Amino acid sequence: MTIDEARAFVKHVESLFMPWNVEALVAGFTEDCVVRFGDLPEFTGRKELEKFFRGRSARQKGYQLRKQLHALMGHTIANSWQGEWQDSQTGARMSGHGVEIWVMREGKIAVWEAAFNFKEGQEKRHGNRVMQIREMKKLIGASLLLLAACAVLGDRTASVERMYVINCGENHTKDLSAWTPGTHVGEPAVFSNHCYLIRHANEWMLWDSGNPDRVAALPNGLTNPRGTITAYMRKPLVESLKEIGVSPGDIHRFAMSHSHGDHSGNANLFSTATLYMQTPEYDAVFGPEPQKYNFIAANFEKLRDAKIVKLNGDHDVFGDGAVLIKSTPGHTPGHQSLFVRLPKTGPVLLSGDMTHLVENWQLKRSPAFNFDVPQSVRSMERMEAFMKQTGAQLLINHDPAQAASIPKAPASVE
Ligand SMILES: [Zn+2]
After folding, report:
1. Where in the chain is the domain with CATH 3.60.15.10?
2. Which CATH architecture has domain 3-154?
3. Is the whole-model pTM more than 0.70?
4. pLDDT digit string, tens, across residues 44-66
5. Is domain 162-403 classified as CATH 3.40.50.720?
6. Phi then psi for 4, rounded to 5 degrees?
7. Ramachandran bin of 380, using left for φ above 0, alpha for ψ from -120 to 50, beta for the remaining angles
């Protein structure tokens, strides 16, 4: 986009408010647009956007708007607006101004960030002119700052060097329907299970730690107390790491999707790494009743004093966008998934147990035993939108058919 095209686009948008042309406005956004408007909770998609515009257009009568382009950087446009209207509910004359950032994709707005001020009455054009100019200067400053931040965000497309997908056991069940409510009743199934070792610059990061290595010594596997799952470990994780030339003490950063036994089986081996955990998961694991969440306290006994970074949402692990922890609660209170940018494959999202099977993902179906089923579904929906935005592919840890198509350690994925 050129600066002239950006200016023309801003003017075009301005014209769509006088009068409100909701259909044309919505058409200027991508199908999966993300909207962060003032204090409103973030929302996604044209349907929600249309609702939002319809609500506002019903209320703001006689809208007079001036929009101005401030800067264009890459695909990001910074602009400000000043407007006046009559509130149809209160009858009051209103005025306001604000700053907007638009991240463009194929000529449409993919991300809309807006910060604004409005008040009753008109902004005085003469008496308060100095004030107004000062405000506008502040706004321009703010928009440039925002734009700089966006540029940094936009540039956050660094990649890791490579990733090893390590076989970290197998879990057998006699009845798949616990994971697929209503179908596959009485059908046996084998879930794959993986650990993921990531090389980034000079560091190693491990995602999930699999079934316990000690299970490798049990030819008949280890059956859980309820008798619903039997866990096997064909090769201990320590041995798989050794084949790559890594020992547990070499791992700098360690995170688990969640704290169930098939992901935390070898967690104690990595007590020298920095551990990343969502606060609700931390509280459940190290609180008084880990068993209430089906967590095994012994799996974490060496981690209590480890360096733990408690998270309350998403986190950029290396600060360059190459690896992002995405908060996906539901399966457990602080479940998380991992976004990894690979240099050749492109971005992938490691599911953890956000979903267990391609079939469940397609139907947005959640096992009934999840900690919070509606929250699980919301996490899946959020990640689907995120994947559309980033073009990421989903690697489903426990889906054996999908897993069979991915090269395993000691080979790596680039
Ligand atoms: Zn699992």
Report:
1. 162-403
2. Roll (3.10)
3. no
4. 899 999 999 999 999 989 989 99
5. no
6. -65, -40
7. alpha
